[in-house]
Task: inverse folding
């Protein structure tokens, strides 16, 4: 009798474990499926235009498909934290980057065309990036929350600063494709190198000076607090040697906050 009772308990325990596994796979589809960014990819392909190939892009805000954008934002808002944490790190980061950029576009469109800069959406008390107006994981959050609380502390990749786009002319260009968890490292590395080769960054050999976007000043700590050394790994993109970049005097360029609007530029 005791043997039968022990067998019954063992089978009951095994059944419970199988039931839990079934629930995970049946009720948490994100365990087997990454988030689908195809709608966002289609919007970017249609509405982001390269005025200087691989250097300068502009957004066609005037003709942006707002209903399609809202549908994409609704899918972002529907994701639970349980689903999010079931994804790989790269899938999580791609999701947050795409969410940040899509919410930024929607933010600009909320006042377009009656604004010259995203800064116009701020107030005396809060910058536009501090306003809590974007739904994520069941609560209203700010763009700053997505960048500084969710992305920067947990993913340790300084190249995200060329992927998160603030809708200004001096920002890195908004890419004409969605970021993907399957190709994220390659996408971020390529975007970073293209940004270094753009007019927003340059090395002048005769002066031994390295002119950089102010992004590198604002987020210096993310690059290890030794920017010269970090960028020496990308010396070829400045048409310089690693030694030249390590010894260069850094100068930061003035930031142009004008809207990256195709209709104005």
Result:
């Amino acid at each position: 009798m005791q043997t039968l009772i022990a067998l019954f308990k063992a089978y009951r325990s095994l059944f419970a474990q199988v039931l839990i596994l079934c629930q995970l796979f049946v009720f948490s589809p994100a365990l087997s499926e990454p988030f689908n960014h195809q709608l966002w990819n289609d919007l970017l392909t249609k509405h982001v235009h390269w005025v200087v190939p691989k250097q300068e892009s502009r957004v066609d805000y005037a003709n942006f498909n707002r209903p399609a954008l809202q549908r994409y934002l609704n899918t972002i808002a529907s994701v639970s934290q349980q689903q999010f944490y079931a994804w790989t790190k790269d899938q999580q980061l791609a999701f947050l980057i795409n969410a940040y950029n899509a919410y930024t576009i929607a933010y600009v469109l909320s006042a377009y065309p009656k604004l010259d800069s995203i800064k116009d959406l701020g107030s005396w008390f809060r910058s536009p990036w501090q306003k809590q107006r974007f739904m994520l994981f069941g609560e209203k959050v700010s763009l700053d929350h997505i960048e500084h609380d969710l992305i920067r502390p947990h993913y340790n990749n300084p190249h995200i600063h060329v992927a998160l786009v603030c809708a200004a002319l001096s920002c890195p260009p908004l890419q004409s494709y969605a970021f993907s968890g399957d190709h994220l490292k390659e996408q971020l590395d390529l975007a970073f190198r293209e940004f270094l080769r753009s007019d927003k960054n340059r090395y002048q050999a005769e002066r031994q000076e390295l002119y950089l976007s102010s992004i590198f000043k604002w987020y210096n700590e993310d690059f290890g607090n030794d920017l010269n050394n970090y960028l020496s790994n990308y010396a070829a993109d400045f048409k310089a040697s690693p030694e030249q970049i390590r010894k260069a005097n850094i100068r930061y360029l003035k930031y142009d906050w004008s809207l990256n609007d195709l209709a104005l530029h």
